[in-house]
Write a structure and sequence with these properties.
This protein has helices spanning 3-11, 17-26, 55-64, 80-87, and strands at 28-34, 37-38, 40-43, 46-51, 75-79, 95-99, 108-110. The chain has 135 residues and is α+β, with helices and mostly antiparallel strands. A four-stranded mixed sheet has the order 3-4-6-7, covered by helices on one side. Strands 2-1-5 form a three-stranded antiparallel sheet. The longest helix has 10 residues, at 17-26. It comes from Streptomyces macrosporus. This is SseB protein N-terminal domain-containing protein.
Length: 135
């Protein structure tokens, strides 16, 4: 199944969390660039990277943010695994990925928890024994 199908299955209560995370990790996602960095937003103490499964989902997000239709957005394509395993650990504070944020019935959050991000940056792991680099 594709990521959008796994998200739909989860939202309908018939999904498999392991399959969802696996498909997320394998999927190339479009991440807009703003001021030389990835488009993020902070909510609930977490910095969320905005990522999209295709250009149509990105366009719906831009429209929801009242971006003029003729304005182009530069973006990069990154695997979900690259976002969680490399980008998020390099961020200051907890980070997660918000996929297709403008699609009410097709969006999904991948929070900074064990099984999604590396344990060293997961907010639900006791870092007391992990030394100086732990968050």
């Amino acid at each position: 199944m594709e990521l959008v199908d796994e998200i739909a299955a989860m939202r309908q209560g018939r999904g498999n969390p392991g399959a969802l995370v696996g498909e997320f990790r394998r999927t190339p996602l479009l991440v807009p660039l703003v001021d030389g960095g990835l488009l993020t937003a902070v909510f609930g103490g977490v910095r969320w990277i905005h990522a999209f499964t295709d250009e149509a989902a990105l366009a719906r997000f831009a429209q929801a943010r009242n971006v003029p239709p003729d304005q182009e957005w530069e973006y990069v394509s990154l695997l979900g695994a690259r976002l969680t395993d490399a980008v998020i650990p390099s961020m200051d504070g907890p980070g997660g990925v918000a996929v297709n944020a403008a699609d009410e019935d097709a969006s999904m959050l991948f929070p900074p928890v064990k099984g999604i991000v590396p344990d060293a940056v997961a907010v639900d792991v006791d870092h007391a024994d992990q030394g100086e680099g732990a968050r």
